[in-house]
Amino acid sequence: SKYGNVATFLIRRGANVNQISKNSTPLLNTIKYFYNYDSSHTEVLEVLLENGASVNARNDEHKTLLMLAASNGKCKSILPLLLDYGANLNDQDNDGNTALIHAVCSRFCSQNVSILLQSAKNKNDLVNVQNHAGMTVLMYAAIHRELEIIKELIVNYGADVNIKDVNGNTALLHALTNYNKQTKELITTLIKAGSSINCQNNDG
């Protein structure tokens, strides 16, 4: 594509693939400025990575390219590429969120969640990571009513259903917030997986 050709031309003329400008790098900018991601942007990514761009560079919010891509439903095709180049699944941003948490909290990103989970080496540690608010990926899945993701996390990846956040809430307590008919199966799934029905948060 013309974008890939331009990137190659600039690099051959001495452009720094890790140049920091406004707390960002060329690699981070491929996501930042191209929300409607397509194959031409993938080619730019490949050119940058092949020429030594740091795949784990961070922006001013301490987010990596993997986190930004994970939260964009149109970027599922580049996640394996980033992981092949050594993107760190366990990195956390300023709020303690991982790429997996970003994916679960974003719309139309269920496939991104599966890709990240399948790529994890230590799956139990990844799914039970807590951010600075004590939240896990399972809790966010409960908040966003992502039943299939909840089942996947519990059945295939050993998500701990009884971890509590800083306010003492478990995934079940989060699911019970704004209860409606759609959450019934979700709550049943959590209880069958061993969620304590007698747990109390910090408010009692």
Automatic annotation (TrEMBL):
State the UniProt keywords alphabetically.
ANK repeat, Repeat
What PROSITE patterns does the record tag this protein with? ANK_REP_REGION, ANK_REPEAT
Which Pfam families does the protein's record reference?
Ank_2
Q: Is Mitochondrion given among the entry's keywords?
A: no
Q: Which Gene3D superfamilies match?
A: Ankyrin repeat-containing domain
Q: Which SMART domains match?
A: ANK
User: Which named protein is this?
Assistant: Uncharacterized protein
Which species is this record about? Arion vulgaris
